[in-house]
Design a protein that fits this description.
The protein has one helix at 30-44, and strands spanning 5-13, 23-27, 51-54, 59-62, 65-73. The chain is an alpha+beta fold. The chain has a 5-stranded antiparallel beta sheet, with helices on one face. The protein has 1 helix and 5 strands; from the N terminus they run E-E-H-E-E-E.
């Protein structure tokens, strides 16, 4: 069994500054990471939209349009 990875996700909209609040994600695989990022993004873009996360390019697509990027950083102790 793979160990859980804990990271802070910094979400940076295409047209604006990064969100000040960070998503704390704990995941074992890309599927868990995607679900947690989607939950965080739903708090930022609440309307019923299609949210997709491309883990290879680190992009967040809303209704098929590149809306934000994200980066994962290790939390400070």
């Amino acid at each position: 069994m793979k160990a859980r990875i804990k990271r802070l996700a910094v979400v940076h909209p295409v047209h604006g500054a990064p969100f000040k609040d960070r998503a704390i994600v704990q995941y074992r695989d890309n599927k868990e990471l995607v679900e947690q990022l989607k939950t965080y993004c739903r708090s930022k873009w609440p309307l019923p939209q299609t949210i997709q996360v491309d883990v290879h390019a680190a992009h967040i697509l809303i209704d098929g349009s590149h809306t934000a990027s994200y980066s994962l950083v290790e939390p400070r102790p």
